[in-house]
Design goal:
globular; mainly alpha
Length: 246
C-alpha cells in the first residue's frame, strides 16, 4: 500500500508537467459547464423534457464527459508515451509490479476526477441553481464505478496500443460513440427502445443514468451498477493480462 501511494504521488507530479493534458482532463468540463450555463435557453424549464431545465440534465453528462476525456485521451496518451520513451522498460528493473503501476495510475486519475466533479457539482449549485444530489452516497457510488470502469478501459487501450499516437486515435474512436449513448447529442429520454437498451449496456449510458437517479434521490439501478462493474472487471482484467513493459 505504501508503494502504491508513493507511486501515485509521483505520477501525479509528473502528470501536472503536461499543462495541455491537465486542461482537457481536469479543467475542460467545468469550463464547458460554465459556457452551457450562460446560455439563457438552457436555464429555462423545457416542456419537451417534463419541465426540467436542460442545464440540470446536462450536468451528469458533462461530468461523465470529463471522466471519459481523462480516461480515453489523457491517461491513454500518458501511459503509452511512458512505453514509447522507455520509461516502463526502466521501471521493469525495479521491484514495481504491473498491478501496482496500473493501480497508481487508476488512483491518481480517480482523485483528480473526483476534484473536477466536485467543482462542477458546486459550480452548478451556486452559479446556476442546480440542486445538489439528494442521494449523496448513491451519487458517490455511481461516480466511483463510472470513473473506475472508464479508466480501466483507458488502461486497456494504453496496454494494447503500440504508441501514444495510436492510443490517442483508439481513444477517440471509443470516446465519440460512448458520448452519443451518454446522451450528449440525443438525450436518453428521446432515444427509442433499441438505442436506450444499447445505452444501458455502455459504461457512460449506465453511469449518466445512475448519476441522474442519485441526483433525484434514488439509488442507482442494479442494472446500471452491474454494467459498470462488469466493464471495470472485464477491462481491468484484460489491461493487467496484456500489460507490456515495452
Amino acid at each position: 500500500m505504501s508503494a502504491l501511494l508513493r507511486l501515485s504521488a509521483t505520477e501525479t507530479r509528473l502528470f501536472f508537467r503536461e499543462p495541455v493534458v491537465v486542461f482537457f482532463a481536469v479543467a475542460f468540463s467545468p469550463a464547458l459547464l460554465v459556457v452551457l450555463g450562460l446560455v439563457p435557453a438552457l436555464r429555462e424549464p423545457d416542456p419537451a423534457v417534463g419541465g426540467a431545465r436542460m442545464i440540470t440534465l446536462y450536468l451528469p453528462i458533462v461530468v461523465a464527459m470529463g471522466i471519459a476525456l481523462f480516461a480515453l485521451s489523457g491517461l491513454t496518451q500518458l501511459f503509452s508515451s511512458y512505453r514509447e520513451k522507455g520509461v516502463l522498460r526502466r521501471m521493469r528493473l525495479t521491484p514495481v509490479r504491473p498491478r501496482v503501476l496500473l493501480g497508481a495510475q487508476l488512483l491518481m486519475a480517480l482523485v483528480l476526477s473526483a476534484g473536477s466533479t466536485l467543482a462542477m457539482v458546486l459550480l452548478g449549485r451556486f452559479a446556476f441553481g442546480i440542486a445538489l444530489p439528494r442521494q449523496a452516497f448513491g451519487y458517490l457510488l455511481a461516480f466511483v464505478l463510472l470513473a473506475s470502469a472508464l479508466f480501466a478501459i483507458g488502461l486497456l487501450i494504453a496496454a494494447l496500443a503500440p504508441s501514444a499516437k495510436s492510443a490517442s486515435a483508439a481513444g477517440s474512436l471509443v470516446f465519440f460513440p460512448l458520448m452519443f449513448f451518454a446522451g450528449l447529442w440525443l438525450p436518453r429520454a428521446a432515444m427509442n427502445s433499441v438505442l436506450r437498451t444499447i445505452s444501458d449496456l455502455t459504461p457512460l449510458g449506465a453511469g449518466v443514468q445512475a448519476l441522474q437517479d442519485a441526483t433525484s434521490g434514488h439509488w442507482p439501478q442494479l442494472l446500471h451498477v452491474g454494467v459498470m462493474l462488469g466493464w471495470l472487471l472485464g477491462a481491468g482484467g484484460l489491461a493487467a493480462r496484456y500489460f507490456r513493459w515495452e
